Amino acid sequence: MAPSGSRSIKRSCKRVLHWIPVLFISIIVAWSYYAYVVQLCIESVENLGEKIVYLLAYHLFFIMFVWAYWQTIFTEPMHPLKEFHLSYSDKELLERVDRGESQQEILRRIVRQDLPVYTRTMSGAIRFCDRCILVKPDRCHHCSVCDKCILKMDHHCPWVNNCVGFSNYKFFMLFLAYSLLYCLFITATDLQYFIKFWLAGGKAHERLKEYLSGLPDTQAKFHIMFLFFAASMFSVSLAALFAYHCWLVCKNRSTLEAVRAPAFRHGPDKNGFSLGLSKNVRQVFGDEKTYWPIPVFSSLGDGCSFPTCLVNQDPEQPSTPPVQSPPNKSVGEPPQFPAKPLRESQSRLLNSGESWRESKGPGDRERTGTPNPALTIENEL
C-alpha cells in the first residue's frame, strides 16, 4: 500500500507542477489586460476617439487570443483507434515469442490484415508501442509526459500543459498567430507613451516634470514602460516560433518529423507526407477558408491515416479502386471515426489534382503522387 500511495502522491504533485507554466501565462495576460485597458487607455490616453479605437481593437485580439489558447489547452489529444490495439490472443502470442523477427512477423501479419500503416522504424520494422500495446498509426508517437500515444504528435508543450497533435494543432497555430498580433498591437500603440517615459528617465532632475507632464502618475508610468518591454520581447520569440510552424505546415511536417524524417519501406523521406502547399495547408485548416481564423475544429482526416506523395505503393498493402469522396463534414465538431481506420475524406486532397512541383535546386522536377492505398480501400459493411 505504501509504494502505491507514494506513486499516487508523486503523480498528483507532477500534475500540479505541470500547470505552473499555464498559470504564469495566465497571470501575465491578466496583468497586461489591466495595464493596457486601465492604466493606458482609461488613465493615460486623453483623445476619446483614439481611446475607443484602442479598446475595440484590443478586445478583438484579446478574445481571439484567449479563445485559441483555451482550445489548445483543453482539447483532448486523440489516441489510436481500437483497431490498432492488439487483441487478447495477439498479445498472448506476442508475449510467447522472442523479441526480434518473430514478433515482427506477427506484427506484419496484423498490419497486412486491416491496418493502413506505411511508416516504419529506421531499421524497417513495424512501429509498435510496448507501453500502450498497439501498432502505431502513421505519424503517431508516444508522449512520455502524457504516457499515451498521440495521433500526429507534434510536441508536448509545457505552456499549454498538453500534447499538440492532430486534434489541436490548428488551435495551436491560431494561438501563436493571435498571441503575436496581441503583442504587436500592444507594442505599437504603447510605443509613444513608452518613448515619452524613457526619454524622461535620462534627463536632469529639473527637466523631469516637463517630460512627464503628459502622464498622470507614477503607477501608470511603470505599467506603460514594463508593458512595452514585455510585449516587445514576447513578439520576437512568438514571431520566430510562428514562422517556424508556418514552415512546418507548408511542408506538411510535424516538429518530430522535422528533427527525424519519417521512414517508409524504401527508407526515410522527409517529404513523404507533403502534397503541395495548398493541400498541406488545407489538411491542417480544412477546406472552408471561412473557418481558418476561427478556433473550431476543421482539419481534414481522422489522424490515423494520411495521404502520401509516394510513387511506389507498399506491396504489403492491398490496392483497390478509389472510393467516392463523402460530403464535407460539419466544421467545429470533433471528428467521427469510422469503424475501420480508413479515411475517405482525405482522398479529397488528392482527387483535386494528382501533380505538384517541388523545387530541387536551380530546376524543378515534376512528380506525380499516388494516394495512400489505405485511402482507396472501400469500407466493408
TrEMBL record:
It comes from the Eukaryota. One of its GO terms (cellular component) is membrane. Its main location: membrane. It is a multi-pass membrane protein. Keywords: Acyltransferase, Membrane, Transferase, Transmembrane, Transmembrane helix. Residues 355-368 have a biased composition (Basic and acidic residues). The chain crosses the membrane at residues 16-36, 52-70, 171-195, 222-244. The keyword Transferase applies. Residues 127-259 form the Palmitoyltransferase DHHC domain. One of its GO terms (molecular function) is protein-cysteine S-palmitoyltransferase activity. InterPro entries: Palmitoyltrfase_DHHC, PFA4/ZDH16/20/ERF2-like. The keyword Transferase applies. Its EC number is 2.3.1.225. Residues 310-381 are annotated as: Disordered. It catalyses: L-cysteinyl-[protein] + hexadecanoyl-CoA = S-hexadecanoyl-L-cysteinyl-[protein] + CoA. PANTHER family: PALMITOYLTRANSFERASE ZDHHC16. The DHHC domain is required for palmitoyltransferase activity. Belongs to the DHHC palmitoyltransferase family. This is Palmitoyltransferase. It comes from Clupea harengus.
